[in-house]
Amino acid sequence: MLKYIIKRFLWMIPMLIGISLISFLIMQLAPGDITTTEANFNPKASEESRQKLRTMYNLDKPVIVQYGLWLKRMATLDFGNSFASHQRPVFWQTKDKDGNITLGMIQEALPITLLINVLSLALIIMIALPLGVISALKQNQLADRAITIFVFIGFAIPGFWLALMLMYWTGVQHHWLPISGLQSMGSEHLSWFAQTIDFIKHLILPVFISAITGLAGISLFTRNGMLEVLHQDYITTARSKGLSENRVVYGHALRNALLPLITLLGLSIPGLIGGSVIAESIFAINGMGKLFYDAVLMRDFPVIMGILTIGALLTLIGNLLADVAYAWADPRVRRGVM
Amino acid sequence: MKKIFSNPLAIAGFVIIASIMLLALFAPFIAPYNPDAIDVKAILLGPSNQHLMGTDGLGRDVFSRMLYGARISLLVGFVAVGIATLIGITLGAIAGFYRGWVDTVIMRLVDVMLSIPSFFLILAVIAFLTPSIWNIMIVIGLTSWMGVTRLVRAEFLSLRNREFVLAAQTLGAKDFRLIFTHLLPNSLTPIIVSSILGIGSAVLLESGLSFLGLGVQPPQASWGNILTDGKIYIQFAWWLSLFPGLAILITVLGYNLLGDGLRDAYNPRSNQN
Lengths: 338, 273
Description:
By secondary structure, chain A is mainly α. Chain A has helices at about 1-10, 10-25, 35-40, 45-55, 65-75, 105-135, 140-155, 160-175, 190-230, 235-240, 245-265, 270-280, 290-295, 300-330, 330-335; strands spanning about 95, 100. Chain B has helices at about 10-25, 25-30, 60-100, 100-115, 120-130, 135-140, 145-160, 165-170, 175-185, 190-210, 225-230, 240-265, 270.
């Protein structure tokens, strides 16, 4: 097992190099160079200060050296300071000479996005698994047809539109749920318990919206996986041994149908992280998605590159965890049989 | 073809897409108003006989804008997927046909591209270019070729050693000829299916980008940017949000039904399910 994990871990290195190449390529797309962008925020920027910036971002060096320095930045997760937000550090906090700490932008935004994504993954599993299993067991019956329609709509519905509709329905019309931010105004004066309730209420819509796009895929996948497993010989064997139908379905079929689902959940991580742009900007939540969106609007170059890299890193870690979980659940993988 | 028309879902999808294409094609004849005509005396009017889907914040007729928006959706869907499919077929064919180190390099590139959240990737590229309909078509195309590549490669790998291919090779067919007259035509069905499903995702992506203000730029109408207005006026004008959203939903549903129906018609295994 350990050997498998190490092997799998080392596999991330070439992937990271690939990611650094792609992101470096994107940086080369910038019209002129990034100091033109910086100058846009500060019209008084003199030619001298721009030259200073060029040196700081190594734009005066040959491309290959620039790439090497970018690789070094990625390896040390040092993405410099934001152009737009008063020179705040992009990734992690810094201390100035008076000992004042400035929090990093990603450092502040990441926990919020991770929380929303973990909750929506949990919601996806809680809803999609039972739907998929019911669909497979009641194949071609009414329940299966209804779930199939739900899946088709789930695939086609624009998440941001659903978010708008829910905002209108639950927030504007009925005032059931708050529709922006993560806290009500003045909630800091409430008791600890009331604050938690307030926080949870704010999370309901964003978590639901992030989950909805994943729901359809996972439930369809569970249905097809179950159907395939239910036709296997060992299920017939289990049945002919006289095991109860419940035992056959939940003890044998479901366990095997769930295996590939681990990988699929790992693969759905980039979609969830990317999807946070829309959910967070609609609900005005200061997570990675909104940070990224604001950075794109303001062409805040260091923030864009920082989040792009961290997003890819999170995906790699997610896939690694999924693969390790798979190997843990399926001995054939870790022993290299498959 | 007969098989497709015995599948009710595929027919539904086909009818949806065909109607939207007709609406888009004949938009200038159907639209009751000029989609960009501002009318300050008719701001934010609800749906009525004069304005089937109401008017927006500048008094423009939403129904007319929706019709012209359909053109954008179709255009973006087809061009973006066209680009992605072309790249996918080329890389997939090279990887599956020549195997070896070329295959390794191409498949690792696919892995790398898949590990960057695609929405982030698209937005990052757009941040450095100017948002316009052409740029987003190209960017969506350049960031969604990975699925087709894997598909074509897998098809080629499985066809490569089939007898008819080996026979053609023995008879002296060149690589180029093998690929274009034997391998590619036999992989066409799954490519078409995945392209149709891809158009649906491209339409969704475009509307999301336009909604965020990073796609099709006003005053040019797109379903996504009508929804941007819908968000601003959500308290007063539900029609601005409802109709474009439904249009996107129905269009994407249409492509998905058609794609799934085609796959079922040509894949005997999925018929059993």
